Amino acid sequence: MRTPDGFVIADKALILSLIHESQLRMADFKAAGMDPRLVRKLRNGKRVQEATLARFLAVLGLPVGGEVWRNLMYGDTSQPDSKNVVCLASWIAEGPPSEWITAGNGLQYRIQMLKHCTTAGRRGRGKCYDLSQFSDADRERIEPALKRHPDVLERLRRHRSFPDRTDCGLNGAHHFWVVDDYDDSLTLTEYVQQEAIHGAGLPLKETLNIMKQVAQALRVLHQRKIIRRGLTPDSILIQPDGHVLLTDLELCKLLGEHPTVVPEKLPKSPWLAPELGGMPWSQIPDTEAWEAVDVYSWGRIFLYVATGKVPPESLNRMCDVIPMYPPEIQEMLGRATFAGYRTRPSISEALGAWERMGRIANENHPAD
């Protein structure tokens, strides 16, 4: 972007992508008459003169005034029309953004589909967080925590249940972007609304398949000391091949680390464990208690997928809520959604019983 004093700070991700795709080395830039020190400044996100950026693009064979030039010069600059979404310089908006959404932790964001500037066919699902309502002190706490998204992915080492690649960073003074690669997936909410039978939820076998994948993804997180916290149907994506993807990892809690992006107490939500709505997170005593937070959300989402309805705050007997499910599944979900977190099973316990539960389901419902 262009700075007020006439310099340019180019998007590092786009500069690195351009260098990588060109396969040019520093010696090649030097041979073309460009000082390698200036290339390093561009690559490191340092201020350079406009002429330096023009020379860099000329070496790459890209025109001044073209699309890449405009993204490097103005990609992080707000536009007059508020309907035009300006993302990180590596990405271009594709279609209109969603309405502003309030997350369970009080942060506001909107979702924008994107396409990558230099990689053909690469599309992204961007989340733009609005930080304008926060004080400087709150922003100092929030911004580093939002930037944890790539750190979480690094811990997960490209596991298939989580986004493969991501970009994140500030756009201007008040908007923070997190962009995951995207492949025409539906959120679990959209999928249930589209596929549910007469508004009665998904078929039993499909519900078991989806929720088993969610449980497996949560187990991977817990094994790596990551708590998803605040899992909702809108943060679970169903890919075209039926595979489940967990998103919004910038909102995770890393056990043993601070700061966090949530306030001391979280607002109530149909998916949020009750202890997080009424107990300061600093009072939650141990790892097992934190894992129980995710188990509760998983159980509530299971009921939503099975019935097609958001479960009420107070649940009756599971045999009345999901009468078509085997008693063992009902018992597991009853424990998972119990208000007292000490009585909930671990996600590993749920998966350990899953094979037996699935066998019972297959025997009782062979036609599903």
Automatic annotation (TrEMBL):
Pfam families hit by this protein: Pkinase
Domain of life of the source: Bacteria
Record keyword Zinc present: no
InterPro entries to which the protein is assigned, alphabetical: Kinase-like_dom_sf (IPR011009), NEK_Ser/Thr_kinase (IPR050660), Prot_kinase_dom (IPR000719)
GO molecular function annotations of the record: ATP binding; protein serine kinase activity; protein serine/threonine kinase activity
Enzyme class, spelled out: transferase
Keyword hit for Glycoprotein: no
Protein kinase domain boundaries: 54-368
The EC number(s) this enzyme carries: 2.7.11.1
Keywords attached to this entry: ATP-binding, Kinase, Nucleotide-binding, Serine/threonine-protein kinase, Transferase
Catalysed conversion reaction: L-threonyl-[protein] + ATP = O-phospho-L-threonyl-[protein] + ADP + H(+); L-seryl-[protein] + ATP = O-phospho-L-seryl-[protein] + ADP + H(+)
Name of this protein: non-specific serine/threonine protein kinase
